[in-house]
Amino acid sequence: MRAADAPYVKRLAKLFRAPTNASAFRTNFFRVARANLIAIALPLLITPVLTRLFSPDAYGALATFMSIYNVVLAFCTWRFDWTLPNARTNSMAVTLFAAGAGVLTIVCVATAVISVLVVCRMVFEGSSAARLGWPLLLLPVALCGGGLRLMLTGWFVRDGDLTAVGRATISQSAATSLLNLAAGLGHLESTGLIGSTSVSVWVGLGALAHRAWDRLCAGLRRVTWKGLRAGVRTHGRTASWSALTAMLNALGFSAPILVLGHYYSPREVGWYALMYRTLAAPTSVLTSALSQSFWSVAARYGREGRLAELKRLYRLTTLRLSIACVPVAIVCLVAPSVTGLVLGDAWGGAGEVLRAMLPFFIGSIVFSPTNHLVVLDAQALQSAADTTRLILVVASIGLGTLAGASFVTVVFLASLSSLLAHAVLFVIHVKIHARYERS
Predict the structure, then answer these.
(1) Residue 30 resides in a domain
(2) How many CA atoms lie within 13 A of 277 on its CB side?
(3) What are the tens digits of pLDDT across the range 141-192?
(4) Of the candidates 210, 240, 318, 381, which lies 20 to 30 Å from 424 by C-alpha distance?
(5) In-domain check, residue 245
(6) What is Dmax (Cα atoms) for the chain?
């Protein structure tokens, strides 16, 4: 190696290791980013195999299941997992964990009852139920595992230690990939995809629970009804606004699939679902790591009143994320020419769908990861922004369908609406930061 090349090699090496003397934000970011990079590698590598084992219709059914799952998951802990990192004492953090687990139990029992009633009605009426059917019974199983993982993630975010979160991400991804392959070879179609996803959630949960078990159980044994009521009174308002915000946010992602599934064929919805999953996986290396790391630091800055530093970090990070969108845009633009070759003939039209989703990915990458209105106690404004996005997206799909637009055109209109709503969220953050500066 030439001496002149040494600086470039050192810079490249720094991208793949956490700096030894870096800030907590950078250290956590690198930890989670490395874990996410490993977690997406296997699913992306086997995607061309899976698209030849499963039909687009099967992915459409999975998308419908996951849309319902994500909406219910958004409020199944009443978002006490979001308020947990803001707890000033360990005892209050454990109390909030117990409160979230209690709400989760109620939601899972209710979901189980509803799922059984829906499936029984399908059987009684002789409905085909090809889109979901019996796999709907797995919904409460997946919700229980997913809700507990949310609470444990909040626990580790509060500690500022995201190593366990990264390991859980890797474990869940590996389990999903292996189970998907087994289900595909067994010709299980939508049942296999949904079952694999539901089981793998528990694999990720186990990786988190293993590390927190002793400390968490010791704290939960000291939780009293009096302390639980006090914790709910103190943080209940924040948690309620957060639950509404999370549900609206989840609807913003899930509503397009549910509405598109009503107007268009399972095949086209399957295209949409797989393209979202394929591009969201690599971009999540950046957004998920950044979101969890930023959240951890923002919560600490909020507790310590260091809002000027929080403002600078927010704007600088948003600028860097804007630059990071360039490779995503290139992938979306070239997708139509390579999708059929890589994924198989049945997926030839999926590339056009991915290109139409470009505005959505830009909004999700640039504005979503650094959202910290919960730290600024501005959940009402967050709810307003999420409601605006939901209305714009659903209205775009509805109007496009009424006008007789093609599936690709409708997807583009919905994506553009999502981008505009995310821009509104950025403006809200800027206004609140300015208000704190004047006070």
Answers:
(1) yes
(2) 22
(3) 999 999 999 999 999 888 877 788 888 888 999 999 999 999 999 999 889 9
(4) 240
(5) yes
(6) 76
